[in-house]
Amino acid sequence: MGSQWLILACIFVPLLGSFLLPVLGRINTNARNLASLLFVLVSLVCAVLALHPAMTGQPLRVWLELPQGLSLGFLGDGMAILAAMAFSLTAAVIIFYSFGYIERFENLNEYYFMVTLFMGAVMGAVFSTNLILTYAFWEITSICCWRLLGFDRSEKSIRLAGKALLVNVCGSLLMLAGFISVYMNMGTFNLLDMQGRGVDNWLMALMLCGILAKAAVLPLHSWLPASSDAPAPVSALIGGAVMVNLGVYIYARLFLAGFQLEPVWTVVTPAIAAVSALISAGAAMRETDIRRIMAYSAVCQTSFILMGVSCGTMIGAAGGLISILMNALACGGLFLCAGTVERSTGVRDINELGGLAKNMPLTALSFGLCALSVMGLPPFGGFFAKYMLIAGAVQSGHIWLALLFAAAALMTVIYLLRVFTRVFFGPLINHEATERSWEMVVSMLILGGLTLLTGLFINVPSDIAVYVAESLGRW
Amino acid sequence: MSASLASLMYAFIGLPLLAVAGLNLAGRRLTRRICRPLGVFVGLAQMAVAVISQLLLLQYHKSSVSFSQFWDMTVSDSAAYLRVDAFSLVALFCIGMAVAAAFSFKWFDSEHNAFNFTNMALLLMLGLNGAALVTDLFSLYVFIEIAGLCSYTLTALYREERGLEGGFKQLILGALASVLILIGLAFIFMECGSLRYDALALFFSEELPLPILDYLAFLFLIGGFGIKAGLVPFHQWLPDVYESAPAPVSILLSGIATQMMGTYALIRIMSELKGGAADPVADAILLLLGLITIFVGALAALAQKDMKRCLAYSSISQIGYIVLGVSCGNAFGFIGAMLHFFTLTLGNTVLFTDAAAVDLATNTTDMERLGGLQKQMPLVGVTNLIAFLSNAGLPPAVGFWSKLLIIIAVWQSGNGFIAGLALVAGVLTVACCLKVQRKVFFGPDVEELSGVSAPRGGVVVSSLTLSGLIVVAGLLIPFLLRMLQAQGLF
Amino acid sequence: MPQTVIIICLILSVVAGLVCAMSGRLMHAALALAGLSALTAIILFLFGATMAALFELSCCVGLVTVVLAVAVTLTRPDSPEPETAPASIKRFSVLPLLLIFVGLMLLIVMIFTGFSLDPVTASNVTAEPFRDVFWGTRQADILAQIILILVGAFSVVILFKESE
To answer: Shortest CB distance from C139 goes to which of B69, B152, B192?
Structure first.
């Protein structure tokens, strides 16, 4: 087995450990909170440790032989490690944020249980090489998402959470139908055996349904803005940082490292993504609810990533992979800041907010850092990511795509500036707002700081991403 | 070796029989008090014996064991011997589990009712055990009749109007089913001269095309067992009966009785009679009926206002999946169908136990009046969720694997489109799960129900254990597949 | 010749069954049931299944009818004035029509499958002594019968006994 236990630990520590949390919670709530954080940190550490084997061309692998092509396996290659690091890092920070935010809610045992289980399932989906296993973990994330979105048990959130689950399940069942068709054609569910083999267009369409639903890309995006009513860390985890990015990651896993697509899909999918980015950016420009703006922003940014991985060029693919990291950090940070603002002032409408930079300087700082990264300005990490994405679009030969995305990027700048100046600058409206708990502040600062750091030290993640993109070997 | 294994099998008949005898022959005061523990003990013991038997079968590398009661097994043409193989052991395990769950709570206020229930439930168990053990179609029919009679009486246990009406409805439809089954058996007997499984397998593997009488026989058998199983369009009686039966009776009925009498019989007959010959007409009809059942059941469940009726229609939908698996006609399909049988019995037992717990605590199962019970009954809510997700086919519950196997089997036998439809119909079951969860558990609090207290004791233990089993079984299925591959079934 | 007798017996047994189901008085129903069983026994005998006819006659006609009659006379269910014949016929008027319909369907089936009413024996009925068949070949059914008797007894007790 050797060091393969790293992969298994990365997945199963949070997955199985989450079941201990309700029990722990009855004994000592602090122990439960710390355990939850610890499980996710274990994932992060294991992912980092598994990076070296991945970069030297000998990724760690776990394998369980089963009949009829149903063999299960996990593979720790570069793409998976990158995503795992991004997700677990962001999730750890978000959990830390929850320590301060979530205390006033009930059912905390269920909260921490679901969050940790969710992360375990995400790790499982990231590392899995078997389509059935991927589907299984994918569905577990949908179920956790349902429980988390309906967390406050109000009539409205229950309904919206149910809707989200139905959209996701519909999409993933179509995706499963696609997987089974592939199995019928190829006799196996193992992705590694399917590398470079072609799939029919309609099968691709089926699988795309599931991905679009999870990634909240138009036209299956409707559940995401509705999630802005959930507690802030839940929104961040699901809408901003992890779940939607999981969708695009699975796209990369299936169609970059897996099947060979017809060239038509290098136009269709980016086109869908472009439409999604434009419309959601437009909606973000017009919305006045700060958390819904962040939700639409997440849809927009995820569409960017989808464009990058689907446009068929190496730069685009590398850019997409980097964006997973940058997006997780920055969008996650934006969600957390929006949540802090709402918690401190009790107000969500940006017309009723103003001048908060005076009372909540650290929040303003974090928001600014994350926003600059999302806007794509140097020296932040988001700049390099966006640059590679648009360069990828240009290189693919479809200039109009690049133009559409540049337009969406411009709109991003506009709506983020709008929110930033309206909320944090100008005359102070909300006098009683203060920075709340230190955990919330520290987590926001960490994420903001990371967006800057990853930009300054861009060579580290970009080396990994470029290595991964090059090793896909299909350019 | 074989003798020790065979003697273990006698427990399946002996245990309930001895329990009934003991219950009625011992002193009255003593027996009235031990009804419940006795029932639980018999159920658990049967589960244990089933598991041990399967392990012994594996250890000795045998696929089945035959045993005879009193006489020599070498008598030719003997219908005397009873046989245990993997399918029977799964069924026997499920029977034991459902019985143990039905006895897990003190449902009855009066000892008189408890005594009556125990007797009838143990006899029901005997009948179902027999159905799982026999090797002859006619004996299968007789034992199913026994189980049917017991279920009619159990439904009418309280002798009040609802139960009597439900029992009577069951009786009439059961009689109709029996007539159809007997006609089918008669036709087969006319052609083959024997009703034993092995003789029939031999007969059906040789002749193709079959004489028309045999096609008709299959039609009648499907009709008769379809009524018993609750297949659309014979399903009308099922929700009414589940709703009107007393709580533990509905657990028994939905958990195991309808499954055994209907779907298990279908699985057994189709898998035994296959041999080499495939009966395309019967397969096509089963495929069609299965698909219709899936959709009608799921859609009807979404429209229900009463919790138990909703669960009843949802379980009808799952029966459709089992029938789909049977219609494939290959080993893969039958294994998938049997696994889904297991899923359904586990799931239904938990669901109806929880419904009974809710009913006990709040005196209503009308979903319009219930709500927010997750707070008062957290464990009931969680087990309800797990069981429903298992029925819907979501991982990591065992229902995911069983549905997957069935879908793959149907796809492999050439009906890709139907398989895809059946797969996507899972959304409907998820929607139904969401509806029940939202209306009963996972929603805002309801004023009148704030004083409701959670059920304690046996109910919680049984539904927790069974939900745990659902998840654990789901995690272990890959290893089961490896085991089956080692046995050469794939 | 045997064929006509069989057909007559079949028709009479259907009539007896209808009377049994539709009658408003318990005693009449019990007697009709006895008549039905007797006719069935005759048919079985004509088909050559002597053992089955014997059992049918002794158990169904003899035992069951006697027990039923005794039970009816002993319990004297105090129902209100039993339904008059026209009323009960009206209540169950669908039943004969249903039976005729089913009969027609079966007739069609018969024609297509080349059924015949000649008494035939199953193709490989061996001349095994009856006791071997009873105690050897069909042991499972003996067990089933024992259980059925228990079930019947308990059902009657549950459904009819007044609770203490």
So the answer is: B69
